[in-house]
Amino acid sequence: MHADGFPPVEDAHARVLVLGSLPGPVSLRERQYYAQPRNAFWRIMGKLFGAGPGLPYGERLRILMRRHVALWDVCASAHRTGALDAAIVRASVVTNGFAEFLAEHPELRLVCFNGQVAAELYRRHVLPGLPVEFQALQSVTLPSTSPAHAAMTFEQKLERWNIVREAVMKRAASNSLSPKKLLHTKWTAVEPRNKEKHFLVTNVIDPEPPGSPVVSVEIEAVHSKRTRIIGWRELTDVSRWRRGWV
Question: Cα separation of 158 and 139, whole Å?
């Protein structure tokens, strides 16, 4: 079966892009993202943003756009031999125009893949052809909301998907974040290495030449006392850092 995807759900200030692979048969019939009743996507959006399946579809989309969450699929079109993502014929994949989309959404900071297949399709068919500045865009693979992914409970999936809400909220907060006010702030690494989980900003590096914008800060690991210098904007990446010691 040949399937064509949908246009993106977007607003000009989108901060998070949620990517599926390709609409399934029910979604194609209803002309709606995630229309399969047993798909957990809209239940999760209900918990995160109040955009639950009890609302009209159009209202759900408006809520996500107001919260600066965009929806799209990796595939513009493809052949699939069944309803599951695994049934997508890889050789038939035509991807959406991500270079143009990313250029039109400069505030976007996080791409969330709805399942492993979407992530694999993006990294194989999209990422190599993107301009370098877009290849560095942060991404995270989230558990598929499909009912076929039954290895996790709804509550477990919801916990992982909460990163979407955190990214929107923390990105909004970062608009007013001044690097000069980062001194002595506390941070937690999402994926600690060498037991280094909690960090403290110990120095804001003076820029060169003087008067130019601050670029870097020095952070110290509480456990080991080791220090390193990072770009201060890295701290706005919610897939890597949480503010405070948690």
Answer: 18
Whole-prediction pTM: 0.70
pLDDT single digits (tens) 114-129: 999 999 999 999 999 9
- Dihedral class, residue 216 (left if φ above 0, else alpha if ψ from -120 to 50, else beta): beta
Is 150 within 8 Å of 207 (Cβ atoms)?
Answer: no
Residues present in the chain in total: 246
Alpha carbon of residue 212 to chain centroid: 31
pLDDT in tens, 150-196: 889 999 999 999 999 998 886 555 544 578 789 999 999 988 999 99
Q: Which amino acid is at 161?
A: W
Answer positive or negative: Cα dihedral of 144, 50, 137, 73: positive
* Other beta carbons within 10 Å of 190: 14
Phi and psi for 200 in degrees, rounded to 5? -130, 135
User: Mind telling me the catalytic residues?
Assistant: 39
Strands (E), 22-137: 69-73, 75-79, 94-95, 110-114
- CA–CA distance, 219 with 230 (Å, rounded to integer): 8
